[in-house]
Design goal:
alpha/beta, Collagenase (Catalytic Domain), about 35% helix, globular, binds zinc ion
């Protein structure tokens, strides 16, 4: 299977542990090699002055133009939105190449254990890349493709695909275990 790239496009340095944890988790869940893509470029036209947030549609379009080949998950510390929602944890092109997730809403102030935020990021990363492989939202309890409007909902699901989603992923060219 073609390598998936992981690309930090945030403002502050995330530190090596966050990205490495995410890289390992994605590789396990998707059964694909995952590489870090080092590029200082940042989306030039995605910041919305009025909302003080970043537009995911613009980020995804920009990634398609300047990012590495194959499927790419961009990770940022900036707050993301789509027009109809207050915020999103991430977004992806369904059956496409690009996905983005944000850490901005995954670690609320006073969160007792920073590992909780890392687990949430791993789950949301797998979820968005699942969309890139053509998976839609899933109602199976605890499946990583379940909807998660809040961080609590993210905590309730597991970091892996249910058997139904795993079968779909296999047919789409993934090799999830
Ligand atoms: Zn989703
Ligand atoms: Zn599922």
């Amino acid at each position: 299977m073609e390598a998936i790239h992981l690309w930090w496009i945030g403002e502050k340095d995330p530190g090596p542990r966050t990205l490495e944890h995410l890289r390992l988790h994605l590789g396990r869940a998707l059964g694909a090699p995952v590489r870090i893509w080092e590029d200082e470029a940042r989306p030039p036209d995605a910041y919305d002055e009025r909302r003080k947030q970043w537009a995911t549609s613009r980020i995804l379009a920009w990634m398609g133009r300047v990012g590495p080949p194959g499927k790419v998950l961009a990770v940022t510390d900036q707050d993301l939105f789509i027009p109809i929602l207050t915020f999103v944890f991430g977004e992806a092109q369904l059956d496409g190449r690009s996905a983005v997730v944000s850490t901005a809403r995954l670690g609320e102030p006073g969160l007792p254990d920073p590992r909780v935020a890392m687990e949430r990021l791993a789950k949301e990363g797998v979820h968005e890349l699942g969309h890139c492989f053509g998976l839609v939202h899933c109602d199976s309890p605890a499946c990583v493709m379940g909807r998660s409007p809040s961080a609590r909902d993210v905590d309730r699901k597991r970091g892996e695909f249910c058997s139904k989603c795993r079968d779909r992923l296999k047919r789409a060219g993934g090799e999830a275990r």
